Amino acid sequence: MELSQANVYVKKMFSCEWVKWIHPGSAPAETSAAKRGNVDNALLNSRHCASCLNMNGCCFEKGNCPENPLHEHCHCHYEDIGTITVRATSVIEKYTKYIFENEKNKGKKALFEAWGFSSLDSDFLKKEIERQAQIAFQCGDYILGKRNEYGQRISIVIHLKRKDTGEEIAFVTGWMSYPDGRIELNTPYGGKNERA
Ligand SMILES: [Zn+2]
C-alpha cells in the first residue's frame, strides 16, 4: 500500500460514522445457525421477514449502508452508533477445503498455485485476508453485495504479492455481515478486481 493510500485510510478510520440496523423486539442472529433458524421460522410463520431479522444488529458505514425500509410494513430502522471496532473472521476450511480442495475448487486451486501459493499457505492467507478486510471494512471501503434472507453480503478487495514474481494481485472476497461490526468470509475468491 502506498503512503498516500495509508494516510487516507488512517483519516477515514477515525472519521467514519456508523449505523446499526435495528429490527425491534428480536435478538440479533450471531451465528450462521441462528440465521438459518430465522429463515426456517419465516417459512413457517410469515409474520417476520427473515432478511430483516438477519440484518438486525448489523453495522454499516453511514454513507455505504443498505436501503431502509426494506419492504412495505418494515419496522426496521437505523440507529446512529458513532464509531465501532469491526472484526473480520474466516474459518480455515475456506482455504484448506475450498481454495485448495483437490477436485471441487472450480479452478481456484490452480489459480492460487500459479501465484505460488499452496495449501501450506492457508494459515497465512487466512490471517492476511482477515487483516486487510478488517482495515478496509473499518474505513468503509467495501461494496454492498447481494442481500438475501440470510442478510447483507459485502465485497472487499484484497491485495497480495505473488509468491513467485512478487507482482501485486488484487481480487474480490465476499463476506456476510453479522451483528456489531463482525463480517464472516463466505467467498475467499470472488473474481479479479474489476475496479483496478
Ligand atoms: Zn424490516
Can you describe this structure?
It contains six helices and eight strands. The relative contact order is 0.18. The chain is globular, with a radius of gyration of 18 Å. The longest helix is centred in the middle third of the chain and has 17 residues. Strands 4-8-7-6-5 form a five-stranded mixed sheet. It is of the alpha+beta class. The chain folds into two domains: 80 residues, no CATH class; 101 residues, no CATH class. The protein is 32% helix and 26% strand. A hairpin with a 6-residue loop joins strand 6 and strand 7. The chain binds zinc ion.
Tell me the distance between the termini.
Answer: 14 Å
Tell me the Rg in angstroms: 18 Å
What spatial form do the alpha-carbon principal axes imply?
globular
Strand-residue proportion: 25-35%
Order of helices and strands: HEHHEEEHHHEEEE
Helix count equals 6
Show unreliable segments: none
Give me the secondary-structure category: alpha+beta
- Tell me the strand order in the biggest sheet: 4-8-7-6-5
Q: How many strands in all?
A: 8
Q: How much helical structure, as a percent, in the residues?
A: 25-40%
Task: Name every ligand kind in the structure.
Answer: zinc ion
- Name the average pLDDT: 92
Q: What's the main sheet like? A: 5 strands, mixed
Any idea how many domains? 2
